Amino acid sequence: MCDGTQFDVVIDLQEHPLVNSLIRKADLNKKEPMFPLVVKRCRKCSLVQLVEIIDSEEIYRNVDYLFFSSDMPTLSDYFKGFANDIQKRFIKSKNDLVVEIGSNDGVMLNHFKNKARILGVDPSTNVVLRAVKRGIPTMSEFFTGRLGGLIAKEWGTAKVVMGSNCIAHLNNLRDLLEGVRALLAPDGVFIVEANYWGGMVKNTNYSLIYHDHFSYFSLKVWQDFAKKYGLRVFDAVVTPAQGGSLRIFMDRRKRPVTKRLKALEATEKKTKLNTLETGHRYRDNVWNVAKKLRKTLEDLKKGGAKLAGYGAAAKGFTILRCSGIDGKFLDYFVDDSPAKQGWYTPIDHIPIISRKEAEKRLPDYFVILAPNYAKVIVEKEKKFHKAGGRFVVPIGNIDIL
User: I need a surface site. Which of 174, 376, 386, 394 has the fewest CB within 10 A?
Assistant: First the structure.
C-alpha cells in the first residue's frame, strides 16, 4: 500500500505448501515445493502482510484453481443479501455497470442479472469457464490499471466496482487502485470485502494466513490508502464471512460518513490494532492455540478414537500445518465440492472423499477444517451427531461438540 521498505515480523509460520495445490494420485511420488510463510508489519503504513510472496501466476494460472464459490454452502444466500444492499443503495438503472474483481464462477454477479449490466474479472481460467457457462460475462485476467481503463473505454464507467474476498490476493494494490480510479463513474462506489486483521486478532484466527493472501487489512490502512487515489471511506462494517471480514465502501467524497464507520474507527484506536505490540500478542496466542489443538487430537488418538477432517479448505491446511497434524491423525478428508474429491492434500497426501463414501467408514470425530462453516456442518450432520459422533472445532478454545 506504500513504498515502505522496513518491516517487523509479526509471526513466522515456517514453510508451507500452496494450500490449493491438491495432488492427483498419479503425482503422489513427485517432489512438492514448500515456501516460507512469514507475516510482517510495515513500519510506514502499518499494513500487515506477506513480503516474500509467491508469483500469482503459480497460484491462479499454472494450476487448476479448485475453489468454486458456488460449491460453498450458504455463500449464494450471503451474497444475495450483499447484492440487495448494493442495488438498493447505489443502482439506479438497468444500464448501470457493475464490475466484480475476483468474480470466481459468478455467484455474486448472478444476483445482479437483469438489474444492471455486469462484468466479472478473474485470473483463474477454469472458474471463468464455469461463469461464462452460467451466462456471466467474465474476463480471465488480473485486474490492473491498464485493464480498468480498457473496460471503461469499451463498456463505459462503472457505478459499482467491487471485490469480495479477493483483494487480499492481489500483490500490486497501487495498480489495483489505478484501475479502479480509471473505471469508476464520478458518482460510483468501490466496495471491498476482505480479511479483517481486527477479527483475526480478536479470535486468534490464523487460518486465513496462507500464500494466496498477501494482505491482512484494518480500516485505518484503507482510509489512508484511499486518500492517495482521490477516494474516501464513507462506510464500513465487520461481516461474519470467513470468521469476520471487513466490508468498506469508498467514493469521491459525496456521501455522508456512517455511524458504524465511526464506531469501528474508535474501536481500532482503543485496541491499538495497528501496533506491533498487538501483532506480537497475536503471535503468542496463535502458537498457544496450535499447541492446544495438537494435544487435544493426541489425547483423542491415545484413547483409540478415529479422526477425519471435514472440509478440505485452504484455511484448514494452515491450521494443520501449524499444529503438525498429518495422516497419522486423520484418515481422510470429506469435502462436498466434486472438484476436490479424488484428490490428495499437499505434502501429507490425505485422501479427499465424498460424504457418501465416508459413510462406509465414519470416524468417531470429525475435525472441522472449514471452521467458518462449523454451524452449517453440525446442523447438516445431525444424524452423525445423534449416533454419537463428535466434532472438533480447531480454533479459539478448541471446542468439542
Answer: 386
Domain with CATH 3.40.50.720 in the chain: 296-400
pLDDT band, residue 70 (cuts 50/70/90): low
| Strands in 145-278 per DSSP E | 158-164, 184-195, 215-216, 232-239, 245-251
Residue range 258-270: mean pLDDT, rounded? 98
Is the separation of the CB atoms in 168 and 210 below 8 Å? no
Closest CA relative to residue 319, chosen from 206, 217, 239: 206
Q: How confident is the model at residue 69 (pLDDT cuts 50, 70, 90)?
A: low
| 219 membership: H or E segment, kind and range | helix 219-227
Instruction: Considering the chain, tell me which residue range(s) the CATH 3.40.50.150 domain(s) occupy.
Output: 7-277
How buried is 153 (Cβ within 10 angstroms: 0-12 exposed, 13-18 middle, 19+ buried)?
A: exposed
CB 116 within 8 A of CB 100: no
Dihedral angle computed from the Cα positions of residues 170, 171, 177 and 182, in that order, rounded to the nearest 10 degrees: -80
How do residues 352-378 score in pLDDT, each as one tens digit? 999 999 999 999 999 998 887 888 899
pTM for the structure as a whole: 0.87
- Please name the fold of domain 296-400: Rossmann fold (3.40.50)
